[in-house]
Write a structure and sequence with these properties.
Residues 167-187 are annotated as: Disordered. 52% of the residues lie in helices and 3% in strands. It is mainly alpha-helical. The chain folds into three domains: 11-156, no CATH class; 192-322, no CATH class; 334-535, hpI Integrase, Chain A.
Amino acid sequence: MDGIIRTEISPQEARAWLADVIKRERAKIEKLQFLRRFDSLDPLDDLRQDEAARDAWAYLARSGLNAEAPEGASDLLRSTIDLYRRDLASDSRRRIVAREFQDLTGRPASSAFEVVTLMSLLISGKRAAWAGNDTALEPIEALADDLAAQTPSDLLGPEPHCAAPNFPPENAARTPSVVSQPAQDPALDPSLDGVIERLITMKREEGIEEKTLRQYRSFGDLFTLLTGITDIRRVRQADATAFRAALLKIPKSWGKSPKDRTATRDEVMARAAALPADQVGLSTGTINRHLDHLGQVATWAADEGFLIDPRLDPSKLRRKETVRESEKKDAFTPLQLEALFQNPVWTGSATEYFQTRPGKTIYRNGIYWCPLIGAVTGARREEIAGLSPEDIIEVDGIPCISIRETEQRRVKTLSSCRTVPIHVRLIELGFLDHVTKMKRAGHPDLFPDLREPKSGKHGKKLGRRMRQIIDDTLGADGAALSFHSFRHYVQNALEHAAIDDKIIRDIVGHEGRDIHEKTYHKPTPPNLMRPAIDALPLWV
C-alpha cells in the first residue's frame, strides 16, 4: 500500500477509499442475499450469477481491462466481464468515482492519474468483497446463534446464574443447561469425499450392501459438480435448494456413462438442453434419495465434531410423490406370466446362445432357472443370480434356498437374510439335479453362465436377457416390466391369497412394521412357508 505514495493520493486516503469500496460492495451482497430468501425464483441461476460476478472481478483484478477473456470461460462469465469492462471504461463511472472520493475525503481527485488509481483500487475492493460472497450473512447468523444461546427458555426459565426464588443455593451441584459440541478430531478430513468415505466405512460394518454405499459416492460427486462445494462445513440451506433445482435440469441418464465422471457442470447442462423434455430431470424418488444422503452426511459430520450450519435441513426440500409407491413399478399379471413361460427358453431353443429362438432343446441354465425361482419366491435378481450350490440346503426335510451374505453376494439389509422353501414344481423340473451337477463340477456359482467375466457380478447379464425375453414375448405391453416385477407379483399374489402378513414379509425379506416385530418376531419356519409358496402357480 505504501507504494501508492508516489501518486497524489496519500496512503491514508487509499486505505480509506479501499475500505469504503469493500464496505459498500459487501453491503450490496448482503442485501442481495437477504432478498433472495423471499424473492428468488431460481436459486440455481442466482448461484451461477454470483459465481460469474466473483470470477469476473477476480479476472479483471488479475489481468486488467483489455486482456482477452479466459480460455474455456462460459458465455455467462464472458458477458459479465464485458459488462464490467464497459462500465469501468465509461466517463460516467469515472465521474461517479471522483465524486464518491470527494465525499469520502473532502477533496477532489485533481488528476487523471488519481482517477485511474481510484478505479484500480475499486476493482481490487470489489474482487475482495465478492471473494467471500457465499459467507456474506455468516456474521449475522453467528450473532443470531449467540443471542439464541443466551436467551432463556420460556419453558425452563432463565439460566441458573440468573437469581430467582426457590433456586438451589449457588454452591449446589447443577446440571449444565447447554450440551457442548463434540470435540473435533483435527486429523479428520472435512471434505465431502472424506466424510462420505468414513460414513461408508461405518455403514459397511452394519451390513449395508455395496450398491447402496456406491450411491453415497454418486451423491457426493453430483453435489460437488452442481454446487462447486467440496467442504461439508460450507454447505448452507441455499446450497441444498440450488442442488435440488439443478437435479431437475440434468439428464435422467446422468451417471450411466463413463464420460459423466469427468464432465463439467456446463457440459452436463448443455447435454440436457439438447435432450427432449421427457429425458431431463431426475425422478422424485432419486431427488429425495440425494437429499436424504446430504442430510445423513451432514449429521455424520456434525457427530464427528465439525461445525455444520444449524439451519441446514435438506429434509424440508423433499419433493412430494405424485404416484403411490405401489404404482411406481408394474407387477406381472398371471396372464403375462403364463405367456412369458411359453417363450422358447422354457419350451425349446435353437441353441444355448440363441436361447430365445424356437428349437428342440431346453437348456436348463441360469436364464432358465432364475425367472422360475423369481416367480415363486419374489427374491431379488442379485439374490438369485448370485446363489452358490451350498446355498441350497435342507431344513427339517424341506429343500430350501438360503439367502445369506457370502463372498459371492451381499444382501440388501439384515432382514433380507432368510431361508425359503423350494417350490414343488421346481423340484419336479429337476432343479435339485442341477444343484447336484454344479456341486460335482466344483462350480462356486449355481449359475456360472450368468457371471460377468470382468466384474464377476451375476445380476446384470440376467437383467439384459430378461429384458429381451419380456420384449420378445409381451412387446409394448411389457415396457414397464423387469425382473423386479416378479417380486411385486409374488407379494400381490400372496396378499390376495390372504396369507399372513408376517409370512409374506419373511418370504420376500422385508422388515417388520414396528419395533416389536423387528425385535421379537422369529423367522417363519419353512414348513409354514411351504404351503404359501407351493400355492403360487408356475406355468411350465
